[in-house]
Specification:
Shape: globular
Distance between the termini: 55 Å
Low-confidence stretches: 245-275, 486-495
Helix content: over 70%
Number of domains: 1
Radius of gyration: 24 Å
CATH class: Mainly Alpha
CATH architecture: Up-down Bundle
CATH superfamily: MFS general substrate transporter like domains
Number of strands: 0
Structural class: mainly alpha
CATH topology: Growth Hormone, Chain: A
Largest sheet: none
């Protein structure tokens, strides 16, 4: 009598070859973009070390400093205009990122994704480490740090369009919001890891807060070069089915919820393709229904998210009086909330088939929560933790949904007639427009914060409401679609 197959082996063999490749690709791209965000985070942690109140720090005997409040600061951030200089650092990265993103998608469609990603990660590691080397080289010129940040912003644009295009090549629309909600947690995981790694070195040798993440992203670039599989066709797997039956509404609809994400697509009749797909033009991508609305909405949603990304540790240090490491550790709770918010947004949008409405509701609820966080967020440790988790979920949920599932939906829209090469350009347009807001948020925070932190929160609330307003047309369209669908379903049941 033959012995039964071991449960673990039975589980392994239950998945098809295509399923393993899909899971493998999802894991690799998750690691890749985690390393991108991991290398961006240190600057927000190190800010509170570059400028701090030195009057509470014991001055070494060998150091003869004239100013007791700035002797431990790192020039040129030891002056009263340090917040403006921090804003310059943030915006040198974010403006370069926003401009570069519009071109990145175009290059991403025309170059092999494996080479493109690998090169981008190696260069990101180089420039991230270069910022940290300023500590060991004793560099005190603001222009050095601004230049390094700007160059890092340019090379970091290689990441997002490429990883979204790669995932879009492997996955169809079934449960796309859920699977990409989980996958998009790489943003928050990267922020958390970046905060924790930077926090280890920030008080002793802040240069290592940049050098260690720089080495990590460079190593992942090498892994990408040797192991990334760009398309199912490259390993003789079947490509996913991006489009639905002609009877269904194409814009931002999902396949049946019973479709398995990791299963092989059912065989379909396809005409043989004898020529290379042409890359879509920038104007052609803008004509896809929904691209402009979601792009402008993301501008304001990302303004809020990136203001928290770059200024939350400093806010916690100033208002709650945490030290640099404590403020950085506490700020990771915002990203933990972002992970939960991204998954929740994906689940809800898959179930309701309403991407725009899901974003709209979360943004509307986020506005009063931001006001409450500024008012009562520091009233005890439990309140701080709860408000950070809640605000993180409501702020980053819509941001995550738009940059992943929505971008992939639009980039494989039925109006493109199967041209999958549009995905990188559509993703770059949406995220590039959002990156303009990402640049404006920290800049405005740097300008407004000297007048009081409450004014910064008023600015964030205003941006949140504008994001809702820009989605109103798509929300109305989705609600009307639900009403019509519900009526037909009731009539069918009565028959």
């Amino acid at each position: 009598m033959r012995s039964s197959l071991a449960p673990g082996i039975r589980l392994i063999t239950s998945f098809s070859r295509e399923s393993w490749y899909r899971g493998y690709t999802l894991f690799l791209t998750f690691v890749f973009y985690t390393s991108y965000h991991l290398s961006r985070k240190p600057i927000s942690i190190v800010k509170s070390e570059l400028h701090r109140n030195c009057s509470f720090t014991i001055q070494p005997l060998h150091l003869n400093a004239t100013n007791n409040e700035t002797w431990c600061d790192w020039a040129p951030f030891d002056q009263d205009n340090y917040q403006t200089l921090f804003g310059a650092l943030d915006n040198s990265f974010l403006v370069a990122y926003a401009i570069g993103m519009f071109f990145s998608g175009i290059f991403g469609e025309r170059l092999p994704l494996r080479y493109y990603l690998s090169t981008g990660m190696l260069l990101s590691g180089f420039f991230t480490s270069l910022f940290g080397l300023g500590f060991y080289w004793n560099i005190h010129s603001i222009w050095y740090y601004v230049f390094v940040q700007a160059m890092n912003g340019v090379v970091q644009t290689t990441g997002w369009p490429a990883v979204v295009a790669c995932v879009g090549n492997w996955f169809g629309k079934g449960k796309r919001g859920f699977i990409m909600g989980i996958w998009n947690s790489h943003t928050s995981v990267g922020n958390i890891l970046g905060s924790l790694i930077a926090g280890v070195f920030v008080s002793s040798a802040w240069g290592l807060s940049f050098i260690v993440p720089g080495i990590i992203i460079a190593v992942t670039g090498v892994i990408c070069f040797f192991f990334l599989v760009e398309r199912p066709e490259d390993v003789n797997c079947n490509p996913p089915q991006h489009h639905e039956c002609p009877e269904q509404e194409p814009l931002l609809r999902n396949a049946s919820s019973t479709e398995e994400i990791f299963s092989s697509p059912q065989p379909v009749n396809r005409e043989p393709v004898h020529q290379e797909e042409e890359a879509i033009s920038f104007v052609g991508a803008l004509r896809i229904p929904g691209v402009i609305e979601f792009s402008l909405c993301l501008l304001f949603a990302k303004l809020v998210s990136y203001t928290f990304l770059y200024w939350l540790p400093l806010y916690i240090a100033n208002v709650a009086h945490f030290d640099s490491k404590g403020a950085g550790d506490m700020s990771t709770l915002f990203d933990v909330g972002g992970i939960l918010g991204g998954i929740l947004a994906g689940l809800v949008s898959d179930y309701t088939k309403g991407r725009a409405t899901t974003c709209f509701v979360m943004l509307i609820v986020a506005a009063p929560m931001l006001f409450l966080y500024n008012q009562i967020g520091q009233n005890g440790l439990a309140t701080t933790i709860g408000m950070l988790l809640l605000c993180g979920a409501l702020v980053n949920g819509p941001y995550a949904l738009i940059t992943t599932a929505v971008s992939a939906d639009l980039g494989t829209d039925e109006s493109l007639r199967g041209n999958s090469r549009a995905l990188s350009t559509v993703t770059a347009i949406i995220d590039g427009t959002g990156s303009i807001g990402a640049a404006l948020g920290p800049l405005l925070a740097g300008l407004i914060s000297p007048t009081g932190w409450k004014n910064v929160f008023y600015m964030l609330i205003t941006a949140d409401l504008l994001a809702c307003l820009l989605l109103s047309r798509l929300v109305i369209k989705e609600v009307r679609g639900w009403c019509g669908y519900s009526t037909r379903q009731r009539g069918f049941k009565e028959i």
